[in-house]
């Protein structure tokens, strides 16, 4: 059994980003995805240096922060993306989504100096409506795997009230006959994250579980392979 433990939201805030790196160094995180329109991406690249087995992908975003491109349908008058409740009231132009997502991928390549390990998205926007047609085009263009469209079964159950050591081990047992990717949101919580996100202090709890000796012992005793989209 192979498992990808992906930490979403790399680069969101300073402390959140530091927590993900801590989860790589002391826990079972080998994969993360970066919000390329956030201000801590360069800092994230710096502290990820030397983490040779950490796969970093792009967390394509349409519902948080400012866009990287000029557009007519993706943002409000100040260049801010609509939030996930507002977005249902707007018809987004697919070509503008393509150009925005491409700009996010290109920014990753410019900052990190190489292609990302894979693509996924904030709030699942790559599978929203007909957005996947855009992401499929980009995945073929850059030769990148995409969350929920590959050999790893995507698991979203480790979130919110379902975050505990027992529930995590339950998921490992539930999907023991499959290769899976578990979506996680570990990190430290600083004041910036607390103000920005409704899912803030919960990230510390996730980090604690993903670094726990009990979880690591379970993984070792059941011959589970922790990997990423780079195969490391």
Structure summarized in a few sentences:
The protein has 232 residues and is of the alpha/beta class.
Written account of the structure:
With 232 residues, the protein is an alpha/beta fold. Helix content is 37%, strand content 14%. The chain contains eight helices and seven strands. It has helices spanning 14-26, 41-48, 94-112, 132-142, 165-174, 191-196, 202-210, 213-221, and strands at 2-10, 31-34, 55-60, 119-121, 153-155, 180-184, 225-227. Strands 1, 2, 3, 4, 5, 6 and 7 form a seven-stranded parallel beta sheet that branches. α1 links the parallel β1 (2-10) and β2. α5 packs parallel to α8. 39% of the residues are buried.
Number of strands: 7
- Major beta sheet, specifics? 7 strands, parallel
Tell me the series of helices and strands, N- to C-terminal.
EHEHEHEHEHEHHHE
- Into which percent range does the helicity of residues fall? 25-40%
Multimer state: single chain
- Low-confidence runs of at least 5 consecutive residues: none
Distance between the termini: 14 Å
Mean pLDDT: 97
Fraction in beta strands: 5-15%
Total DSSP helices: 8
How large, in whole angstroms, is the Cα Rg?
A: 17 Å
Structural class: alpha/beta
């Amino acid at each position: 059994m192979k498992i990808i433990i992906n930490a979403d939201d790399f680069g969101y805030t300073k402390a959140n980003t530091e927590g993900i790196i801590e989860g790589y160094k002391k826990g079972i995180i080998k994969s993360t995805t970066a919000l390329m329109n956030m201000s801590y991406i360069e800092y994230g690249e710096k502290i990820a240096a030397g983490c040779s087995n950490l796969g970093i992908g792009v967390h394509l975003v349409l519902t948080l922060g400012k866009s990287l491109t000029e557009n007519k349908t993706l943002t409000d008058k100040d260049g801010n993306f609509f939030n996930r409740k507002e977005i249902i009231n707007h018809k987004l132009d697919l070509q503008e989504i393509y150009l925005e997502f491409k700009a996010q991928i290109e920014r990753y390549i410019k900052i990190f100096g190489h292609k990302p390990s894979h693509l996924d998205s904030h709030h699942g926007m790559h599978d929203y409506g007909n957005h996947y047609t855009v992401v499929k085009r980009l995945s073929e263009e850059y030769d990148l795997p995409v969350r929920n469209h590959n050999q790893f079964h995507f698991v979203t159950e480790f979130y919110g009230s379902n975050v505990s050591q027992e529930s995590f081990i339950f998921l490992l047992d539930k999907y023991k006959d499959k290769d899976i990717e578990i979506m996680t949101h570990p990190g430290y919580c600083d004041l910036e994250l607390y103000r920005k996100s409704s899912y803030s202090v919960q990230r510390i709890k996730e980090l604690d579980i993903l670094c726990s000796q009990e979880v690591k012992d379970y993984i070792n005793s059941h011959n589970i392979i922790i990997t990423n989209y780079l195969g490391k």
